[in-house]
Amino acid sequence: MEEHPLPTNYQLQSIATGNIFEDSGWLLDAPDENNPSLIRALYENNQLHKGPNTRGLYQFSDWLPIHRSLIGSYAPVTYKSQGLSKKLGLENLWITFSGYWPERGIQMKTCSFKETEAYSVCGRLDEKEKKILVVASAGNTARAFARVCSDNNIPLLLCVPEDNINALWFDEPIADCVKLIVSESGSDYFDAIHLSNLACQMEAFVAEGGAKNVARRDGMGTTVLSAVTTIGKIPDYYFQAVGSGTGAIAAWEANLRFNEDGRFGNNKMKLMVSQNKPFTPIYDTWKADSRAMLPLDDTLARQQVEAIDAKVLSNRKPPYPIAGGLYDALKDTQGDVLLASNEEAKEAADLFQQTEGIDIHPAAAIATATLIEAAKNNSLEKDALIMLNITGGGEDVFKKSHKLHYLKPQLAFPINPDFEEVKKQLNQLFK
Fold first, then answer.
1. Domains in the chain, ordered, with CATH?
2. What are the pLDDT digits (tens) for 117-172?
3. What is the percent of the chain where pLDDT is above 70?
4. d(Cα 416, Cα 365) in Å, to the nearest integer?
5. Mutual orientation of helices 362-376 and 342-356 as an angle, nearest 10°?
6. Distance CA 271, CA 328 (A)
7. Which residue among 217, 328, 331, 381 sits deepest, i.e. has the most Cβ atoms within 10 Å of its Cβ?
8. Closest CA relative to residue 186, chosen from 301, 330, 43
């Protein structure tokens, strides 16, 4: 990989107040502010100077809050659809693909755009950091962080629901610097987050931060950086399935940066985000025109999560109400929240395979299903410039050509674990 100037020069800004401050290392919140707000990176380079493809994700380092580059990354690829666009009667459909598709020049070994987060977040982490990074995940994020941290010798604690650990497959064994703990069978992503929060109360650990981490969002935003620099224009519509909505927030922020860049237009993509029925908390809240998330019964939520195929879309407490969060992104872009069922997603995945030639993840199939429906009901202009964010794919191809290794959990905890017990067992695990 070629050398390029790092660290990237940037400052941070509170969305709620506009206050600008320096990044003291691992800031997740604006200092001395009480109201919840995301913080955003302000880059020294207002215009994006894209590096060569040999840099992988780091070809976009101008707009990544990083101190170093790591080995093994790929950037998302964008191409103009031929098959699906013809089938749907959409003249200007572009697909941004993250996953494993060697024919398109992309070989993300975890087959998911979560790699964009992991390479950016871990690139923000100081090499001298002694604390252990903690990541909670419903599956794909854990797989991406495990791969990146294993390859780059970065200590990591993963917290995943036990029912989701079949998502933790790899083409080679994961190094000992990565440890996996689980919340017991019957739990969901929210329970894994709770477990990770308990770990982060201990001195030895540092929270990755989720949506609050500017590196996570700006890593995910490389999907839009890929699209706009390939197409030469900012799209009119952006389609993506959401669990937390962090990817959509990232897309909006990347769009705003391109508006300031000035070379690609100044429009705002309408964020067309989707959820997998029957788990629809973001949809329900948006349709109620509420900033505050509507109440959701824990037991019902777990049942709904069990019913959906796209398990990665199962966040019960998304960054929706927070200043700079999904509510603000949808309002600012005049976007909408759409729904698709498991059956509609399966049909969409089959159509994508037939027309584009690659398998896609269930979440990407949800997004594709809502695009198909929007095209059918004529809610999109035929010549509109549309970006479809395929957030994962090529897994079938990858698994057929690689022997798989699974990461096994070292510890399992009940849904409501006792903190002292968690502390005791983690201390023994990381002796």
1. 77-111+216-398 (3.40.50.1100)
2. 999 999 999 888 899 999 999 888 999 999 999 999 999 999 999 999 999 999 99
3. 99
4. 33
5. 90
6. 11
7. 217
8. 301
